[in-house]
Amino acid sequence: MAPVLTSPLVSTQWLADHLGADDLLVLDASVHTDGIGFDMSWHSARDAHERRGHVPGAVYADLIDEFSAAESDLPLTRPGVDRFESAARALGVSRASTVVVYDDGIGEWSARLWWIFRSFGFDAVAVLDGGFPKWRDEGRPVRVGALSRTPRPSADAFVAGEERPLWADRARVLRAVDGSEPAALVMAADPAVLGDDHPPIVPGSTTIGVRALLDGSNALLRQPELKRALAPVLSADEVVTYCGVGSASCVDALALTVLGHQKVRVYDGSLAEWWREPIAS
Q1: Cα separation, 193 vs 38, whole angstroms
Q2: How is residue 38 annotated by DSSP?
Q3: Nearest to 128 by CA among 9, 7, 45
Q4: Beta strands in the chain (DSSP E)
Q5: How far apart are CA 58 and CA 201, in angstroms?
């Protein structure tokens, strides 16, 4: 029987206790970047997964190619249902799986893959709190090399559900800006990552960067501190998070979900789309 999740987060100790359990699938969603602002580029971290090590038994999940829309002219756009279902099946996800996702950074990529899974109706998924940095720094086992995995039999094949309303588009953000459909807008990217020479961010936004939500071990702050960090938007009926390409925004969405907020959306196009047609501030 697969381990039962009681939170969107699992601790490193929880994962250590359950490694090897039936139907537990651990995914490394790491993505590496170069540059800042308009010069930023994104690269697969598969080589680092295989050569520098990963949680034993973890499978690499490619957010750049497999879990993004191939036809989009925006980076890292979420996949459609068929592409998502195919990518999940290829990793060995079944209807009986419990999935734990991590990355080797500050958690933005694991949070994004977690959000994608949830948006297609799969709730047996959690983020490893603190990710690979916390796991490694605690001296827990690390495996080097690739892992081959055979997909589940078709009788137990994963089937994606209808997409839930967990995403916002530009039109939704514009309605929040003009007040016709209010929502708190949260910019989750570190301003330093955006560079100095860029158009304005979305008017009326509150900046709550990912690092403001993390403790010294790379894990999310405990709930009292997390509530204080998100206090400017926590009472809003709806919150829309965004960043550069919709990755860091998923950490803020994860934190709000941990605190029990019931209506959070991620602006998938984020500033990569917004800056194409900026509006007057």
Answers
A1: 10
A2: G
A3: 9
A4: 9-10, 24-28, 31-34, 41-44, 59-60, 98-102, 125-128, 167-168, 184-187, 206-207, 239-242, 264-267
A5: 37
Tokens found for residue 70? 């191939």
How many Å apart are CA 105 and CA 107, to the nearest integer?
6
Q: Are strands 206-207 and 59-60 parallel, antiparallel or unpaired?
A: unpaired
Residue 189: which of 206, 176, 204, 174 has the closest Cα? 206
Per-residue confidence in pLDDT tens, the chain, 281 aa: 789 999 999 999 999 999 999 999 999 999 999 998 888 999 999 999 999 999 999 999 999 999 999 999 999 999 999 999 999 999 999 999 999 999 999 999 999 999 999 999 999 999 999 999 999 999 999 999 977 655 555 568 899 999 999 999 999 999 999 999 999 999 999 988 898 888 999 999 999 999 999 999 999 999 999 999 999 999 999 999 999 999 999 999 999 999 999 999 999 999 999 999 867 54
- CA-nearest of 147, 113, 105 to 19 is 147
Cβ atoms of 148 and 199 closer than 8 Å: no
Q: Which single residue is written with the structure tokens 């250590």?
A: 16
Residues near 252 by beta carbon (within 8 Å), at least 6 away in sequence: 186, 188, 208, 210, 213, 230, 241
The answer to whether 219 and 134 are in contact (CB under 8 A) is yes
Residue 126 in contact with residue 100, Cβ under 8 Å?
A: yes
